[in-house]
Structure formats: structure tokens, C-alpha cells
Amino acid sequence: MDRITYGVNKQTAMEYEKLGREKFLQKQLHPPANDQLDEATEANLARNVVDMQTVMENVTVRRQKFVREVKDQRKRSEFNTMIRREGNKVLAVAKRRHLIRAIYSPWQLKEQMAWFWLNHFSVFAAKANIRFQAGDYEDRALRPHALGKFRDLLLATMTHPAMLDYLDASKNKKGKPNENYARELMELHTMGVGSGYTQKDITEVARVLTGISVNFSPTLPKLNEKSKEGFFRKNGIQFFPRQHDAGDKVVLGKKIKGDGWGEVEALADLLARQPATAKHISTKLAQFFVGDQPAPALVKAMSERFMKSDGDISQTLETLFKSKEFKASLGSKFRDPMEVVVSTARLAYEDRQIQNYLPLTNSLDRLGQGLYKRVTPDGYPLQKSMWDGSSQLFQRFEVVRFLSTGTARFFQYGKQSDEIKGSVPDLNNDFYEQNIKPHLSETTLGVLNKTPKNRVMWNAMLFSSPEWMNREYKK
To answer: What pTM value is reported for the model?
Structure first.
């Protein structure tokens, strides 16, 4: 339960006892397409919705009008600052939606995979207009395919404004190919470093991607009949055939016939079905769920399942979860900051809907793993060594103590000193006795027994324990 989900709580334990190990695993591997949550969580999500198309059209029209009518540089700078602030408010909604689901959804494996892919196909919100696009990127490109076919997931990211803006794909035009996205597409998103592709392959991939840009203007360009052939604009993505290199391309020894937009889908097919891609994705999944140095035999088995299933993510994960290597790893798996914050909130507040998520997003920022804040496209590191330094651990202890307080700041917007009577969670209860205490070491139990009868302090000691920091159970 601590590995398949973000962390054990009463809801998860009841589900596991009801279904048993195998049925619980299968249910997590195959959530319904419409993973509707409980009424309170759906109501919380409904309060945090932004339509990217509407917002981006509004910003685009206002920006075009302002640039056309105002020449004063100081006023232009002030206008851009105002737009960034508006974008930050939209981004805050995207962050809240991610955390609401991560904490309260029963489909916990899907939530972990949503975070995994958000990190794997990372975008940086502070660049261009990504602040306005981040929520849509997660909801439309990543989440629907989180446990589906990798090819569909890859194509969805390749054709979303957030990724195209982030890696400068809009600058990629016939005669002036920009190789930035092409390189990251092969090096980070699919095949991995040193997997056999060449500089020529990168150049050819960049040629395939020419003519694609991001444009949210409600006004279509004036085109003659010839220019209209193959042109389209949808969900902010624009394909301009006259800016596309229409010649045939050869990628990884395979010919991609020059036929416009169809080349993009052909490229996704080709990259998603490479053995090197199967190995790269399997390795990262094993690092995420098992440990920093997964056994070659495990990666090989996962890669073979990936290839035989045409990149089925659920089937690849099933191979992982049923492996002897996974079972052997259950003694210890260090939590990254996201896992620390979400697992703590899940146990402490599963019976109450958190309303103010700013303390949680600030906690992630403080721990160095803020949502949409990774500047470079490689995503946050998965290795334990990046998260277990003395400074990081000190910050973690401060964060979990803060998350244990239960003050009003989690449940309403107002002064930080506001308190809700009885809001500090009582975690030293029957559930703890039955489900958590048996897995704690004598040292941890000794510390908890000596902790004064103060809920905040006791909770903080539990969440600071090695077992909690390590998703650990005692054999």
C-alpha cells in the first residue's frame, strides 16, 4: 500500500482488506476512464477550473491590442508584469488540482503516474505563456494516458502548446530548423542518452517538426486557396504547411514520407516503438518504484513487456509490481518531497477537504520540488542522494511539523493565526495501533512514547521517523 499509493490511510487500508492484494493491484492498474471522485472532492475540483483556450485567447487579443496601440516601453513592461501575475493565478489553480487529486483520489497509482509523467515530460511554468497552459497540459496531455499506451502519451505531449512553447518548437521553420525540441525528444523523452541515434537523426526529427507553432489568436490568417491546403489550428496548435519542410526524412534508418501533419504521428510511432525507448522508460519506472539502481534483469523483463504490449504502461508496471526485485525493495524506498507532502496530508486530513493549498505548494517549493518549477527539461532527479542531505532533512522536519498543526490556514483563507477548534488531527488512534505501529522500529516507538502528550509534536515525530521518510515496513 505504501508503494502502490502515496501512503497508507484508512481509505486505502479498507480497500485493501476488502479486495486482497491481487484485486487491489489490478484495480489500481486499470482505473476507469472517467475516474470520478467523491462528492466533496469533485466539488473542490469544480472550484478550481480554468479553460485554457478562453484564457489564452483573451491574453492574446489584449497583448496584440496593447502592442499595437502603446509604444511606451515602461507601460509595456508594466503590462507584461500584469499578465504574468494573471498567469500565476491560473498556475495556482493547476497546482491545486494536482494536489487535490493526489491527496483524495482512491486511484492512487494513477496519481503517482500523473506526477511521474509530469516530471518526465517536464515544462517550466515561468517561460512564455506556460503559466496559462500548465493545467490543461496535465489534464489533457498527461492524465488521460498515464496508464495507457506510451505512444499516445508521447504524441499528446508533442502536440500541446505547453511543450512546444517550452522547447521553442514554434521557432522551427523550413530552412531554419530549431533542434532544441528534437534533441530533448530523443535524449530525455524517448530513447535516452547514448542509445544509438546520431546528430543526423536529430536534424531529421527537427525537419519533421517544422511548421508547427502555437497560436491562440481568434482570427485566422488570410490565406489563398493553395495555402489553405493542410492548414489547421486547434487547441492552440497551428500547422502551417508553407512553413513545413515537405521533403522525405530518414530517422533511425526509417523513411518518413513527407506528407505534412501525418509525419508527426509517424515520428511518434517510430520513437515510441524503439527498444531503446522501452529500456529508458522501464529504467526510470523502476527507479521511481524500486530504487536508484534497479537490477538489469528487472529492466529487461519490463522492457520486453513494454515491447510486446506496444508500450502499454499498465502492463509494464504489472511486470514490475509482480517481480521479486520489487518485493525485495519493500524494506526501504526513500520518499521524494512530493511523496513526503502528499503522504503526510493524506493521513492527516483524509476526513477533511483541504481548501487552501498554498501552504502545501510552498512546502514543495521549500523542499526543492515545486510543481512546474524545474527550469531544465530533464525533470527532478529520482535518486535518493539528491534528497537526503542534512539541509534537506532539516527542511523536511520543519515541513512535516507544519503540516501536523491543522491550523485554519489549510481550511480557509484568512489570517494565519486563525484556528479551528479541534483541527489538529489525532493520529495516535486505533488506525495507528493496527496499521502503522506494527511496522515501526523499537527506536521510533521509543521516541513516540517519550513525546509529550501534544498532538502537533507527536504527529511531527511520526512523520519525521525513518519509516515514514522511507516508505518502509519492518520485516
So the answer is: 0.95
SS3 at position 147: coil
| Spans of all domains in the chain | 31-147, 167-271, 337-469
Q: Compute the distance between CA of residue 25 and CA of residue 173 in angstroms, rounded to an integer.
A: 46
Match 479553460 to its residue by C-alpha cell: 51
Q: List the one residue out of 219, 216, 185 whose CA is nearest residue 202.
A: 185
Backbone angles phi and psi of 39, in degrees to 5: -60, -45
> How many CB atoms lie under 10 A from the CB of residue 378?
13
Q: Residues 124-170: pLDDT tens digits?
A: 999 999 999 999 999 999 999 999 999 999 999 999 999 999 999 88
Tell me which of 177 and 446 has the higher pLDDT.
446
Name the residue among 253, 176, 171 with its Cα closest to residue 212: 171
Q: Which residues pair with 251 in a beta bridge?
A: 254
Residue with cell 539528491: 386
Q: What is the DSSP letter of 176?
A: B
Single-letter code of the amino acid located at 118: L
By three-state DSSP, how is residue 233 classified?
Answer: strand
Distance CA 169, CA 208 (A): 11
C-alpha cell at 310: 506496444
CA distance 167 to 180: 6
What is the distance between the alpha carbons of residues 155 and 133, in angstroms, rounded to a whole number? 17
